[in-house]
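Researcher: Please translate sequence to structure tokens.
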Amino acid sequence: MSRKPAASKSSSKDKGSSRPPSTFHHTAVIADTTTISGIHTLHVGASTVIHPRTTILTHSAPVQIGSHCLISDLSTIGICTPTFSPKNKRASHAVNIGDHVIIEPGCVVEGCVGDGTVLEAGAKVGRGAVVGNWCRVPPLGIVGEGQCVQDGEVVLGGVLGSRKDGVSTVGRELRGVVGAMRGDCEASLLTKSGRTAKITGSSTDND
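Model: Translation complete:
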């Protein structure tokens, strides 16, 4: 992986996939094995690092990823198909990830994640769910569709909203842990050489 060059090019890597309009900050780092497809917009902020074999989907709604985030291998960001309901035949939920967010390997994010939050390996944020700022979801933890985790809370386990789970308020002491983890991981990634992502869509760089 390497820093994205000043001029990015469209790619036909996935010939059968649609091509979302995308913008990437020039300091973002995106692995060449990242798969990006859909019809809605995608934005990736400054100094965000996206690891290999990550999938980003904008078929249902726009996806926005903030600055200084770390998105690990085999994660899926976005929703492949729209959410249908009797009242709204095509109710779509935008996927927003805040700044300084750490997403560990194998996570699925279909909702919104606030600043400084950590999703541990295999965690899932369901459609329309909202995880607040400086929260933590444990390995294989699930924040169910439409559920909400308040700022500074930790999901203790299971599926949020079921009888087997709960949350614990931990305050903002997670801020230092998140910053240190992100800094160490990003520094190690930026020392490695490689190619930038082959994006299936038009993309521009922001200053």
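Researcher: Any highlights?
Model: The helical segments are 174-189.
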